[in-house]
Amino acid sequence: MSADWNTKYGTRRVRHDPPTLDEAIFAAVGITDDHEQQAEIAAALMGMPLDVVQAEVKKQARTNSRITATRVIAGEQGAQRSVVVERRVVRRFSAATRTGT
């Protein structure tokens, strides 16, 4: 979608690209932790039906919950500190498929 308008220097055009569904969900995740509200925010950004967006939010929530978890730890003076735990997938190869020494 583009908008055109005339200026004294000629016609000017601005390109407007709406966000993709993944970008809209990513933005909604940054705003709130509630999956229903995330779906509503993403649907409003995209202009899509809520049912379609809810299904995608649930899919992404399932995969994201396995990857990263945030823990809050109280320090000695009671100040809260956040610790992000990321689990990486370890790929193991069998010795039979390796070549070399």
Automatic annotation (TrEMBL):
Name the UniProt record assigns to this protein: Uncharacterized protein
